[in-house]
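User: Hi! I'm working on a homework problem where we have to compare a predicted structure to a textbook description. Could you give me the structure for the chain below?
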Amino acid sequence: MAVAAITEQLKKHVAAIHTSGELSLLERKLANVLLLNAYDELLTKRTHTLPVRHLWAMLGWDDSNNTEYLQEALRKLNSTSIEFNMMKDGKHSWHVMSLLAYGNIEHGICTYSYTEYLAERLYKPEIYATINIGVQHLFTGSYALTLYENCLRYKTVGSTGWLELELFRRIMGADAELYDEFYRLNERVIKPSVKEINRVSDIQLVAEFKKQGRKVSAVRFMITESPQQALLKPVIENDHAAIQESDLFKKLLEHGIGKRLAILWILQDEARVREVVSYVEAKAHKKQVKGSTAGYIRTLYESEAVVGKTPFEEKKAQEEQGKKDEEQRKAQEKRRLVREAEFLREHTTAAINALSIEEKRVWASSYIAEVGSATTQTYNAETANFRVGLERVQFLAWLHKRLAPQINPTEYKAWLKRKEGDRESTKDGSAKL
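Assistant: Happy to help. Predicted C-alpha cells:
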C-alpha cells in the first residue's frame, strides 16, 4: 500500500530534468545563480544580465579577476544538454536542448539567455526547484550538489523512485568508464555524496539498491528531513523571512522589482540597494525619472554608477558638518556659561539679601579698608549702605565676588530643571493668551 501510494505520487514528478555531461561544482553553482537572477523575468525577457562582481560574490569565489575561468564555465553550460522526460496524453514526451543558449561578458557585465521552451519549463517550480544560495555555499563536491538538487524535488514524497544505473549515471554526469563498475560508482560517487548531503543540508538520504541476479541494476534514495534542519533554518529560511519583512524589501516590490531579485540584491549589498532606492525616489519626486523606477533602480544597482556623493562631495560634506558641529559646540558652551552665571547671580543675590545689618556692616568695613575711604565717602554706618548709586554698585559688585558660591552639581541640575519648567509654563501661558 505504501509503495503504491508513493508510486502514484511520483507521477507528478516524472518531468524531472536530467543534464548530460559532467558539470564541475563551480559550473553547477553558476547554473543555479544565473537561474535565480533571471527567475522573475524568465517569461517576459529572453536576455538577462548580472554584474560579474556580484556573480562571483554569489558563487563565493575570491578570484574575481579570473574572467577566463568564468568564460570556460559559461562555455560548458552552453555545450551541456538538458533533457525533459514528461507525460503528455498518457505518453512519455522527451525533449533536449542546451542548458544555456547564449553567454557574453563585456564591460564587467555577464549577459545570458535561455531558449523560450526551456525558460517556460524552468519557471515552473514543480518541475525545477531552484537551489537556495545559502545551502549551495555549503557544498564542496559537484556530485553531492547534483544529487541534492535531484533529490530535493522528491522531498514531499520521500523517495526518488528506482533509477536504472545508466540513467543515474547520466543524471550525475558520472559517464567515465571508471564507473562502469558499480563498486567504484558507489565508493566514489554515491557514498561521498550521501555523506555530504546528510552533513550539510536540510535533507537526509539513505541509498537503497535493486539487483538483477548478482548485479546492482538500480538505485533509489529515501528522503527525510534532516535532524539538523532546525539548525539550518534560522540561517537559510529565517534570514529570508526577515528580509521579506523589511521596509527595504517592501519598497523594492512597490517599485516593481521581483521577490527573488529583491532578496538577492539585499543579500549581496544591502547598503547599495538602500542608497539606490533613496536616490531614485528623490529623483522621482522631482519628476526626473523617465520610464519606470524599476528599470532605473536595476540599471543603477547593476552598474558602477555613483548614486550617492562623490568622494570630493563626501569630503566637502564632512568639512561642512565639522564646521556645524564646532559652531554647535561653541553655542552649547556659551549657553552653559550663561546658565551658570545666572545660577551664581541668583544664589549670590539671595545670599546678600539674607545678610543681617551687622553682617553687612562687617562686609562694608572690609570693603572700605580694601579700597580706601576716598571712594566710600557716602557710606552710612547706621544703615550699612551707600547713599550714592555709583559707590553702592561698586560695593555690591565687590560683595558678589566674595559671596559667590561654588557650583554644586546636584543643586545646579535641580535649578536647571526648575528653570526649564518655568520656561515651559511661560510658553503655555503666552499661547493661551
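For your comparison, note the following. The domain at 2-231 is CATH 1.10.10.10 (Arc Repressor Mutant, subunit A). The mean pLDDT is 79. Good luck with the assignment!
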